[in-house]
Amino acid sequence: MKIGAIIQARTSSTRLPQKVLKPLPFNSKINVLQQVIRRVAKSELIDEIIIATTTHDEDEKIVEVAKKENIKFYKGSLENVLERYYNAALENSLDVIVRITSDCPCADANIIDEIVKKHIDSNADYTSNTLTRGFPRGIDAEVINFNVLENVYENATDKFEKEHVTPFIYKTHPEDFKIVQYETKNDNSDIRITLDTPQDYALLCSVYDNLYDKNEFFSLDDILELFSSKPYLKDINSEITQKKVCNSLEEELDEVLNLCEKQDLDRAKQYIEKII
User: Fold this and answer.
1) What is the mean predicted confidence (pLDDT) over 262-271?
2) Which of 104, 179, 207, 226 matches a 20 to 30 Å C-alpha distance to 192?
3) Using omega within 30 degrees of 0 as the cis cutoff, is the peptide bond preceding 25 cis?
4) In the sheet that 3-8 helps form, which strands lie side by side, from edge to edge?
5) How far apart are CA 99 and CA 6, in angstroms?
6) Backbone phi and psi for residue 151, each to the nearest 5 degrees, phi listed first
7) Mean pLDDT of the chain
8) Which residues pair with 144 in a beta bridge?
9) Burial of 228 from C-beta contacts in 10 A (0-12 / 13-18 / 19+)
10) Could you tell me which of 142, 145, 141, 151 has the C-alpha nearest to residue 172?
11) With 80 as the cut, is the pLDDT of residue 257 above it?
């Protein structure tokens, strides 16, 4: 059985362009994507790491990082991330795929291995720690068998299914797959250590400033201990709303109403409620 981690990466992020190329620690010569690669490489169960990027010229910078870190890469569609994953897995003969996003520079290899082990032991089609939120956002990992990924690739039709890779499994057709959730005992879902905005970057720089010199591969436990001792860190990016995967107009409208409520946009909320 060949287990491979595929890390999706591009430079054209909307809220923080070229975010994965930002230095971390701040003012260092190491960037966010390199930190993700190096942390995932600490896994004991992953046999190979592949960067899945796009054919756009600006993403040659992503390819340069992959070469520098001596790992493989695949270049494919910008919009169809599912196709990127499928072709990268097919090209590298993977039996099991671990999906990692490049905006998670606090990824914990021990947790990734635990999710992979649970996936194999459970004989699951799909396993993740994201279906119900308990882990901090940014400690995410999904594990999927190649034959299941192939099924998704051949049958997914909606844009959101192709852009987000796995909703076809857990959102659209959950009855067709054996889905396993990797649980955590404690709820730390209010901690956000992913990178999508300038505020997120400021927080991640603070996390690295506090932990990196002591241990380059600091663990989730180290992060939780840091937030416990410095609870004000949460305030740095507490107002950021995570993008949500919606598979219907009704879900999108619900999300718009929630955002209006969060921002005290009462008149807009009332207007939307009238027209729906």
Assistant:
1) 69
2) 179
3) yes
4) 72-76, 48-54, 3-8, 96-101, 142-145, 126-128, 179-181
5) 5
6) -60, -45
7) 92
8) 97, 126
9) exposed
10) 151
11) no
For residue 97, the cross-strand partners are 4, 144
φ/ψ of 214, rounded to 5, equals: -75, -40
DSSP assignment string, 223-253: HHHHHHH-GGGGGGSTTPPPP----SHHHHH
State the greatest distance between any 2 C-alpha atoms of the chain, in Å, as a whole number.
Answer: 56
Q: Look-up: residue for tokens 């919606």?
A: 246
For residues 94 and 4, the answer to whether their CB atoms sit within 8 Å is yes
Q: Please give the Cα distance from 60 to 49 (Å, whole number).
A: 18
**What is the residue-wise DSSP string for 142-190?**
EEEEHHHHHHHHHH--SHHHHHHSSHIIIII-GGGS-EEE---SS--TT
**DSSP letter (8 states) at residue 39:** H
Structure tokens given for 13: 């992020």
Q: Which two tokens stand for residue 71?
A: 């790992």
pTM higher than 0.85, yes or no? yes
Contact 167, 131 (CB under 8 A): no
In this prediction, residues 169-196 reach a mean pLDDT of: 96
Give the separation between CA 51 and CA 85, rounded to whole angstroms: 9
Q: Which amino acid is at 202?
A: A
